[in-house]
Amino acid sequence: MAEGHTITVEQGTEHVRVVHRGEVLAESRRPVVLRETGCPVRYYLPPEDVRTDLLTPSETHTYCPFKGTASYWSVPGSPDLVWAYPDPKPDVAEIKDHLCFYEVEVVG
Q: Any idea where the DUF427 domain is (predicted)?
């Protein structure tokens, strides 16, 4: 990790819901919580808790030196709304194949 840059990953128990344009895209009580210096807390959700039938794979890929290469999915009207790391760096292996959304609601 870069000087002063930290990432922690832990199994969460928060109740997380993702609603987009009135439709529930995901709901989980078993998020993997990732905290990274300079970034908002991110909740990575198991694919079983996501309406993957509503997602369309995107051509977009981004690279993070701390997490690896991300793949993206879109929903109608919102490109690249969802991402995952199919082969993450060893320090964040827990997020493998879990899906993350830009905006989530922590219900409780």
A: 16-103
Indicate the residue type of 100.
Answer: C
Residue 31 structure tokens: 């998020």
pTM (2 decimals)? 0.92
Instruction: Count up the domains in the chain and report the number.
Output: 1
- Taking residue 32's Cβ as centre, other Cβ atoms within 10 Å add up to 20
Locate 3 and state its tokens.
């000087």
**Residue 104 banded pLDDT, cuts 50, 70, 90:** confident
* Boundaries of domain holding 100: 7-106
Residue 59 within any structural domain of the chain = yes
Per the document, the length of the chain is 108
53: left (phi over 0), alpha (psi -120 to 50) or beta: alpha
CB 12 within 8 A of CB 104: no
Q: How confident is the model at residue 77 (pLDDT cuts 50, 70, 90)?
A: confident
